[in-house]
Design brief:
By secondary structure, this protein is an alpha/beta fold. 38% of the residues lie in helices and 15% in strands. Strands 1, 2, 3, 4, 5, 6, 7 and 8 form an eight-stranded mixed β-sheet that branches. Helix 5 links the parallel strand 1 and strand 2. Helix 2 packs across helix 3 and helix 4 packs parallel to helix 5. It is globular and about 45 Å long.
Length: 267
């Protein structure tokens, strides 16, 4: 019988880079292993702007959640592909506006879940929960989320950088549809992912995929926009990440336009 610690160690796969830990390295975090930082450096050598792109996507999360909790009035969030905690996580952003907000974080990296349980603590008025599940299993995600969220009331589903983890053969659009179909009208989808429009990034991702435990799949802006099919995009629509409702007081970094995003509502 495998000892529980050995099982966790096997899932961590510290001998191969993992996307959440590489992303953490690119954002300047410390929660990664040498193999992850080495992979991050390979990416940066091929595509030096990648760290700035990671920061841009993180700032999109901030703007999207502030819109959802503020203007849209959403009080429930389902964050799939949580990643390792950094500053301004989903619950912090939402509960800053509405302390009663309830957030469910979903990831299948055991290191992410350990850190999430320790660091992503809710306000007294709201709630945070953590689900160990893969985006490829929407039924499990929804069943576990329903223990914290009222799925008869609007939910904001956030999926940042997660659909790139899914190959075309795994039918990523069907996974998005399965999740959104279970949520009531008034629910939102906030999604962003990397595009295949820059050859240097394409090369960096090919190199990363050759050594990583999980591959990443860049897509065209049109393919990413198609994930919003059947939903009503809020202004300014499906656009490059840097141009989605930018903060007037914060100028975005000058990076290659390689990330695409949108926020849409289910009517």
């Amino acid at each position: 019988m495998t000892h529980p610690r050995e099982a966790v160690r096997a899932r961590l796969q510290t001998d191969r880079p993992h996307s959440a830990r590489v992303w953490n390295y690119l954002l300047g975090g410390k929660d990664n292993y040498p193999v992850d930082s080495e992979a991050g450096e390979v990416i940066l050598k091929t595509f030096p702007e990648f760290a700035a792109v990671a920061r841009l996507q993180r700032r999109f999360l901030s703007r999207a959640v502030r819109f959802l909790a503020g203007e849209a009035g959403v009080r429930q969030f389902l964050d799939i592909g949580t990643g390792l905690p950094t500053a301004d996580n989903t619950h912090e952003l939402a509960q800053r506006i509405a302390p009663e907000s309830r957030i469910v974080y979903v990831d299948n990296d055991p290191l992410v879940l350990v850190h999430a349980q320790a660091l992503l603590t809710s306000s007294a008025e709201g709630a945070c929960a953590y689900v160990d599940a893969d985006v490829r299993d929407p039924a499990r995600i929804l069943a576990e989320a329903a223990k914290t969220l009222d799925l008869s009331r609007p939910v904001a589903l956030t999926m940042l950088g997660i659909m790139g983890q899914i190959s075309d053969a795994e039918r990523p659009a069907d996974l998005v549809n399965a999740l959104m179909s279970a949520l009531p009208p008034g629910s939102y989808l906030a999604l962003s992912d990397g595009t295949d429009t820059n050859e240097a990034l394409n090369t960096a991702v090919r190199v990363y995929n050759g050594q990583s435990a999980n591959t990443y799949h860049l897509r065209s802006p049109q393919e990413i926009a198609s994930f919003f099919t059947g939903l009503d995009l809020v202004e300014p629509g499906a656009v490059s990440t840097a141009t989605w409702r930018p903060d007037a007081e914060q100028s975005e970094e000058d990076t290659a336009d390689v990330s695409f995003c949108g926020v849409a509502v289910k009517k």
